[in-house]
Design goal:
Largest sheet: 7 strands, mixed
Number of helices: 5
Shape: globular
Bound molecules: glycinamide ribonucleotide
CATH class of the largest domain: Alpha Beta
Strand content: 15-25%
Radius of gyration: 16 Å
Distance between the termini: 17 Å
Structural class: alpha/beta
């Protein structure tokens, strides 16, 4: 049966759109049960509406702290019977209830553990990579745990940093890689092929 997703986002939602595209093309066995945004101006909400998917806003700015925000967020997620939470440009700290351990995926636009952690999101990441003079960057899909960008890595691939890159050109190259990796990781989850042991994720062969 298709894996049921809650997608959490804060911005334009190109990551969500890519999930829809892969589902519609028949190479991702998933359904998006709900889209939840942390800001009411997130364009990803419009994308959800365009695909007939229920969307809600839990505005981060309405809550004094991470705990109260997460209480409201998880109450919303739990209205839907989802198998997996997929972060798609979600720029807030998420707490992980015990029953969602290894059931939340994130895609990060760099090679974790480099250029990640608090404040490292979206364009800040690409600016930091260029300022550092790194020769490679990339995309990482990982399970979410209690710390920023810290959980077990599911997939990771590099892209080159070119000498004349701007944050925009590097972002485009990295996001193309994200668009390949994230649906593949979700599909592996759907097939029950991600085995987590401590920090390490083993990808099981088909039918194992
Ligand atoms: C993506 O590049 C994603 O990897 C990044 O934000 C972008 C969201 O784009 N996420 C992070 O930086 C999380 N630390 P989108 O809003 O168009 O999907």
């Amino acid at each position: 049966m298709a894996v049921r997703l809650a997608v959490l986002l804060s911005g334009s939602g190109t990551t969500l759109e890519n999930i829809f595209t892969h589902i519609e093309q028949g190479n991702l066995d998933a359904t998006v049960s709900c889209v939840i945004a942390s800001r009411s101006d997130a364009y990803g909400l419009e994308r959800a509406r365009n695909h007939g998917v229920p969307e809600t806003v839990v505005p981060r700015k309405n809550f004094a702290d991470t705990e109260s925000f997460n209480e409201a967020l998880w109450a919303e997620i739990r209205k839907y019977d989802v198998d997996l939470v997929a972060l798609a440009g979600f720029m807030c700290m998420l707490t992980v209830p015990d029953d969602f351990a290894n059931r939340i995926l994130n895609v990060h636009p760099a090679l974790i553990p480099a250029f990640c952690g608090h404040g490292m999101y979206g364009h800040h990441v690409h600016e930091a990579v260029l300022a550092y003079g790194a020769k490679v960057s990339g995309a990482t899909v990982h399970f979410v745990d209690a710390e920023y960008d810290n959980g077990p890595i599911v997939m990771q691939e590099a892209v080159p940093v070119e000498e004349d890159d701007t944050p925009d050109t590097l972002a485009e190259r990295v996001q193309a890689k994200e668009r390949e990796l994230y649906p593949r990781a979700i599909q592996l989850f759907a097939e029950g092929r991600l085995q987590v042991a401590g920090r390490c994720v083993r990808i099981l062969p088909r039918g194992a």
